[in-house]
Design brief:
mainly alpha; single chain; about 0% strand; 2 helices
Length: about 70
Amino acid sequence: MPISVIEAVRMGIWDFEPDDQEASDFEATSAMPGTDQKLVVMAERVQQGLPLWHPGDRRSCDAPDE
């Protein structure tokens, strides 16, 4: 069974849904949306089978704690 979307696609499993994760299971990022830093974090999450978004992620360019 794949652990990430990437593995599922490689296996031809197109309806794969990763296991639900608690926000406490992985860290939020203060990287600004659209930056290379944010894309790196999101790519790492996909590779680890984690959700792309964390409720504590930075959501705007105004302040890191919004």
